[in-house]
Amino acid sequence: MTSRQVSSWQGVRVSDLRSRWDREEVYVFESVTSTNDVVRELADNGALTGSIVICQEQIEGRGRGGRDWASPAHAGVYLSMLFRPKGECIEPLVTVLTGVDIATALAAEFPGLTPSIKWPNDLMVGERKFGGILAEASAASDGSLVLILGVGVNVRQAKLPKELTRAAAVDEFVEGVDLIRVADAIVCGLEQRIARLPILLDEPALYEFDQLDWLRNRRICHRLPGAAPVKGVAAGIAPDGALLLRPDHGPLVRVMTGSVEVLPG
Hints:
By secondary structure, this protein is an alpha+beta fold. The protein has helices at residues 14-21, 35-44, 91-109, 179-190, 203-212; strands spanning 8-9, 12-13, 26-32, 52-58, 76-83, 115-118, 122-125, 128-139, 145-154, 219-223, 230-237, 243-247, 253-255, 259-262. The radius of gyration is 18 Å and the shape is globular. Helix content is 22%, strand content 31%. It has 5 helices and 14 strands. 39% of the residues are buried.
């Protein structure tokens, strides 16, 4: 499933990455199917909470719902981290919180970047997507929660496939950006609040998301397999991370799963 480990990432040795990110376990690969898959293998073999896998390239990178995530060599940061948190994993809540913290860390590191969050797991800049978060949870043999958070961020526009005409990259907005500083911000963001999972978002957390909410007040269409699509206006999120949809007809709708498409106009 994985290629052999290598001794450095972007010119930084693994030992220095461990010191830089203050953890015992950092694994670097030239190419893997998916960093989440590698972390899953490590978790099954007793890897420590906070273990990180990072690679130059993903062959089968994926996003929410199994969608493909293009991960060409040296074009971005492809990183996954292992958590064994207390509490229940509510996917939209986890990706919303993680999105807020990563967007905040990236904006602090790169003032020229103004990221926002498209519910539930996309990182946006302007009208274009430049990153995404994938949360995958399962139970360990002792019944405890294993949570893997994978993050992909496009950094170098010139190295992205030409067919990704709508994808953005950090270097379009930040001069002289390097991948290691982007990775630093991602690691910082991942560790802000996920060690202990909240059940609900409190008022300050809801306010934080509201300031970064890319969907709010946009017309959207929500689709679920086997159900009629629902069109309306995005109206923020609920404390449990659900998207609030004000439909064209009928009461407010809470959205936890399915796909959301932005409509023109």
